[in-house]
Amino acid sequence: MRAGSFDTDSELVDRLRAGDEVAFMDLVGRYQPQLIRLARSFVTRAETAEDVVQETWLALLTGIDRFEGRSSLRTWLLQICVNRARSTAVQEQRTLPVEQIGPVVDAEHFTESGAWTSPPTPWPDLAADAARDAELAARIRAAVEDLPPMQRAVVTLRDVEGLTGAQTCAVLSITDANQRVLLHRGREHLRTVITKAVSAQ
């Protein structure tokens, strides 16, 4: 069976459990770039991120028999990566003390149901056009790198990898309120960078 031809988690899991190398290479092809980006949210060096991802793949292979399917295979894989990256970040002494992330949620920005009381202003269309510019893209990448680790992880999962809020909470083991605040703060920082860059053009 050729790589990329697995349609369901259950089929892929069955093949991984059977030691199917093609299934494993299919999974690596699908998720290696995402895992690298996610690991880089926690660790300082690209080489360290690659080590984290290698440990993630090893953990998947040795733990696939324990996968119970309570989440998607992708979510489980990302959780493994986050756990490995966090452990490595501790060794690098890059963890962010809880008191530095501020209050878990600023209640005035949300209704009781968790919706925005006043949604953030959409980025101007000009920013989307300017984002194609290489210089602006480099500034945005640098701005993402400058975010505190948890903000960086949430922004990476939501805006780069396309995970939902619930999936992001599951991967990072955080509350929905915390996820929303971290995402909002990260996006606000990036919006400021984009606005300044567009205004300067």
> What's the main sheet like?
none
Mean pLDDT over the full residue set: 80
Beta strand %: under 5%
Task: Kindly provide the name of the CATH class of the largest domain.
Answer: Mainly Alpha
Estimated radius of gyration: 19 Å
The helix-strand sequence is: HHHHHHHHH
| CATH architectural name of the largest domain | Orthogonal Bundle
Q: What kind of oligomer do you see?
A: single chain
Label the overall shape.
globular
Total strands: the figure is: 0
Protein name: Sigma-70 family RNA polymerase sigma factor
Domain RNA polymerase sigma factor 70 region 4 type: 139-190
Keywords: Sigma factor, Transcription, Transcription regulation
Domain RNA polymerase sigma-70 region: 27-94
Explain the overall architecture:
The protein is an all-alpha fold and 201 residues long. The chain has two domains: 9-91, Orthogonal Bundle (Rna Polymerase Sigma Factor, Chain: A); 99-199, Winged helix-like DNA-binding domain superfamily/Winged helix DNA-binding domain (Arc Repressor Mutant, subunit A, Orthogonal Bundle), CATH 1.10.10.10. The chain contains nine helices and no strands. Helix 2 (21-40) crosses helix 4 (73-91), helix 3 packs across helix 4 and helix 7 (149-160) packs across helix 9 (176-199). The protein starts with 8 loop residues before the first helix and ends with a helix.
Pick out its properties.
2 domains, transcription regulation, 201 residues, 9 helices, mainly alpha
